[in-house]
Amino acid sequence: MAKSLEQLRVLVTRPEHQAENLIQLLQAEGAEPVPFPLLQIEPITETSSGFHILKQQIMDLDLFQHLIFVSPNAANFGCDWIDQYWPQLPVGIQWLAIGKKTAETLSNFGIDAYHSSLGYDSEALLESPALQNIAGEKVLIMRGEGGREKLAEELRARGAEVSYAELYRRSCPDHNNNDILQALQPSPDYIMISSGEGLNNLLNLAKQTIQLSADSLRQCHLVVPSERINKEARQAGFNKITTASGPDDQAMLKALML
Predict the structure, then answer these.
(1) Is position 2 within any domain?
(2) For residue 178, which of 36, 17, 75 has the smallest C-alpha distance?
(3) Which of 59, 228, 85 is CA-nearest to residue 140?
(4) Computed from CA positions of residues 123, 128, 133, 138, in that sequence, does the dihedral angle turn out positive or negative?
(5) Which CATH number belongs to the domain containing residue 54 in this structure?
(6) Which of 139, 170, 201 is the last residue of a domain?
(7) In sequence order, what are the residues at sequence separation of 6 or more whose Cβ sits closer than 8 angstroms to the Cβ of residue 194?
(8) Whether residue 91 sits in one domain with residue 164
(9) Which of 121, 139, 170 is at the close of a domain?
(10) Which domain holds residue 151?
(11) What distance lies between CA 25 and its chain's CA centroid?
(12) Are residues 84 and 187 in the same domain?
């Protein structure tokens, strides 16, 4: 039987533009969601250093056999770029998505992308038949600046030629001392973490605030979307962790109610 969330204080750390649905779901269950974004997503623009490289990659899209979108953000920003330079989608490309939500986002732009039913991360996609025989083929990974190298490293080991199209950058939002104290005092009953980067930002923000200690923060109960982030959280000193079946809002809510 699912437990009640009535009056539980839940820190929602998704980027601001991706948090509203989860906040509404928590409110419907009687919880007190506390919005506290730990990542800020900023698209690459004409003033960005990587703009001209990205533009050329999009114009040369038909030179690639495989396009992989790593997240809903990558799907949204990537499709906005493609719409600018490709009135019709180039043919001969295998479109792939990491996670169901990313595939759903691509479908909104008329792209039928493959995603693995085995999971929501790079490892799941790498296990799928779609990426087993790609020696000599060109792969473009649509993502933000930086991030994990697992996908590209494994595809290169399989003989593929891999490039990154870096569509956006992630940063820690500019929270002032008062924002941090309001979010973290009193301590949340649960903290919903979406990524390892967000977790690191949370700990760094706590360290910057004299009235808080990172050690007290580590006593909070985390809800995370994968075993990989569970492992990162344990390495960071957290012990009370629940792992959801995936990163989507419903899966995270269900894990909270276990």
Answers:
(1) no
(2) 36
(3) 59
(4) negative
(5) 3.40.50.10090
(6) 170
(7) 13, 14, 38, 39, 225, 247
(8) yes
(9) 170
(10) 43-170
(11) 19
(12) no
The number of residues making up the chain comes to: 258
Write the pLDDT tens digit of every residue in 40-80.
999 999 999 999 999 999 999 999 999 999 999 999 999 99
Whether the CB-CB separation of 40 and 15 falls below 8 Å is answered with yes
pLDDT tens sequence across 196-228: 999 999 999 988 887 777 788 899 999 999 999
Contact 183, 11 (CB under 8 A): yes
Residue with the two structure tokens 């479109």:
95
Question: Which residues contact residue 104 at a Cβ distance below 8 angstroms, ignoring those fewer than 6 apart?
Answer: none
- CA dist., res. 166 & res. 33, Å (int): 32
The pTM of the full predicted model, rounded to 2 decimals, is 0.93
Q: Which two tokens stand for residue 66?
A: 């495989």
Say if strands 138-144 and 161-171 run parallel, antiparallel, or are unpaired.
parallel
Task: Return contacts of 159-162, CB within 8 angstroms, 24+ apart.
Answer: 159/134, 159/135, 160/66, 160/134, 160/135, 160/136, 161/136, 161/137, 162/138
